[in-house]
Each structure stands twice: as C-alpha cells, then as structure tokens.
Amino acid sequence: MVFNNVGRTVLALSISSLLFVGCSSTNEIETSSTSSLNGTVEIDGSSTVFPISEAVAEEFYSQYPNVRANVAVSGTGGGFKRFANGETDINNASREMREGERLAAIDNGVEFIELRIGTDGLSVLVDPSNNYVDCLTTSELKNIWEPGTKIEYWSDLGQKFPEQKINRFGPDTDSGTFDFFTEKINGEAQVSTDQYQASPDDNVLVRGISGTKGSIGYFGYAYYQENKENLKVIAVDDGRGCITPNPTTIADGSYSPLSRPLFLYINVESLNKPQVKAFVDFYLTHGAKLANEVGYIASSDEVYAANQRLVNTK
Known about the structure:
It contains eleven helices and 14 strands. The chain has helices at 5-35, 50-63, 75-84, 99-107, 138-145, 176-186, 202-210, 221-226, 247-251, 274-294, 301-312; strands at 39-45, 67-71, 90-93, 112-121, 123-126, 135-137, 167-171, 197-199, 215-219, 232-233, 235-237, 242-243, 259-267, 297-298. Helix 2 links the parallel strand 1 and strand 2. The chain is elongated.
C-alpha cells in the first residue's frame, strides 16, 4: 500500500490521537486509584532504620498524597513497647525481637511478621581533628565502655595515646544500637558504663562527637555517611586486623563483630488496612534501592521476594 503525504499525515494524527487517549485513560486510572487511598500508617522504633523508612515514606507520599505515613523514633526497644500494645502498624528494628517483647505482643493479641531489609555496620566515630586514633581493638573498646571503667583519658589505654580526656557519646538504653554494641563489645546487652552523654537521636550524637575534642561514640553507618565531612570513622580489630566499615566489609561480614541485620516488624492485623498494605508493598518494591541510597546494605532481591510472599500470605 502506498501513502501520499496527506495520507501519512492523517495516519500519524490518528495514531497520535489514539496514543493520547490511551495515555490519558491510563493516567486517569492511576491517579484515581492512588488518590482514593487515604488514612495513616504509624511507624516507630529504631533510629538506625529510620532513614530508610523516612525515604520510603517520602516516595510513597508522592504517589499516595492522601496517606500520611508517620515515622517516629523511640529506639528499637521503645518502639517494640508501642508495637506490642498495638499502637503502631510497623516497628523499625536494629535487632531481633526479644522473648519478653514477643510474649507481650502475644498477650495483647498482636500477631506479627519479621522482615529482613538490610545490613548495617555499626560505626565507631571520633572527632575529625583526632590524629591519634585510627583503629581500636575490641578489648580497647570494652575498656572504654564497660561498667566501672577506669579509663578517663586516652593515655589510660596506653602510651601511644595522648593525655586527652575521653568524652563518650552513645544511644540511650531503649536503642537497639545500644543493645547490639554492648552485647558484642561488653559481652552482654544493656551492660555499659553510664559515664557518657546519651541520646535517642543519632543527629544529636553526630553533633556531640563532631564538636567535642577527645570524643568517641557509635551509631549506624548511614549517619556516618551523611555526616562524614564532620566525623572520623575508625577501624575495629577483633583479632584479625583493623577493618573499616564500608559497603564491602559490611556486606561480607568482615567488619566484625559490628555488622548487624536490620528489620521491619509488621502488625498482621494492620495489613487489613488498605493504606498499610499499600505502604508495605511499596516498601518491599523500593526499599532495597532506598536502603542503599541512605548508606546501608540492602538485603538481596531473593530476600525481598520472600518478604513479599510472606506478607501476601497474611
């Protein structure tokens, strides 16, 4: 078949019109389906996982503007208290749920599922002007952080350090980061010196460490990544040499013993709320990318797919 110029023009206009109508219809359907969803999603818990959930919530809002995803920070332990009481839909966690927390949820009729979303390298930081600490052994870290510590000055650790007072900064006792660090370094969760400035807000810890001479503290790798121009991260030696946290050493576990898993806990009953189900599905579609963007190491595609299958069975 041969088309003259007029024929070609008419055909092009006809196809363009059909494509325009098709695209308009699709956009209208998508807009209608997203705008009709409303309500709230209540999220609390870990300050470590907070950057991922906050990023997901922001992306989710761009598609579901009538849904409000409230992301709070009470620490992993504080979040589990609210979660076990049925006050929240999702708990961000930088450790697994403890037996007492599980029993509290069961007693309150809260059924839940656990989703592994990534891995963090809990990072040890000093102030950026520090030119005498590049690596600490786990024994030296224990000497600094154990209950009843006699370490007041860096020189108390050995002659290679100056007579500079140590100023400690760390998460409060409701934090999963506190639990994990004390278990791995001091040998038992929740066992620590109380001679430090505690805060549930990692941004407060960033400011304290970066602005105080002789400081030392610890928090999630993403907060170091976000503030690395104002902080100095140090390597940790567990007996196999000094290893600095980075995406490779965190992912392969060689940054030991401070690589740790990150979780979401989902209230199963909350999945009956369309906005919560949509948010969880969105999280499992986009969470891996956003976890990597904010500075953590996302779980594999296979793990995320298994998470989605688990959610779909509830």
